């Protein structure tokens, strides 16, 4: 796993905890939540892809396969997190989701972040190199 991926994940955690929660940017701005959905999905897509790629022999020389795989990881992460927000709202009466438009915009920004990660991951080697078959 590249150091830049670790840095991206750490930045995501700091943005969420310090700026989003402590400085309350989730509630005081209209844009912070969307930016963090895009950036967080981007960094988590690369992070989980690099873990999967280093654990399981899935390396493919097909750029289309790698793009679809990385993008799918990001979309799945985004949907999973939206479901977590919903469950927290129902069980603990939190106010993470602010209606259907907010939820759909979150999913759209998750899609953008996952797509950007798919593009970067397709054109830059994230995990291990393919073995030489000579």
From TrEMBL:
Key words, A-Z: Membrane, Transmembrane, Transmembrane helix
Annotated TM spans: 7-23, 35-52, 64-87, 107-126
The organism's place on the tree of life at top rank: Bacteria
Pfam families (alphabetical): DUF2238 (PF09997)
InterPro entries in alphabetical order: YjdF-like (IPR014509)
Name of this chain's protein: Uncharacterized protein
Native organism: Oceanirhabdus seepicola
């Amino acid at each position: 796993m590249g150091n830049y991926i670790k840095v991206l994940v750490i930045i995501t955690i700091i943005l969420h905890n310090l700026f989003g929660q402590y400085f309350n940017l989730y509630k005081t701005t209209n844009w912070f939540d969307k930016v963090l959905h895009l950036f967080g999905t981007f960094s988590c897509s690369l992070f989980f892809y690099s873990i999967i790629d280093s654990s399981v022999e899935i390396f493919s020389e097909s750029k289309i396969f790698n793009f679809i795989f990385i993008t799918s990881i990001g979309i799945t992460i985004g949907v999973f997190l939206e479901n977590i927000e919903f469950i927290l709202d129902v069980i603990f009466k939190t106010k993470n989701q602010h209606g259907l438009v907010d939820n759909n915009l979150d999913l759209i920004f998750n899609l953008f972040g996952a797509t950007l990660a798919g593009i970067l991951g397709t054109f830059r080697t994230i995990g291990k190199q393919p073995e030489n078959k000579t």
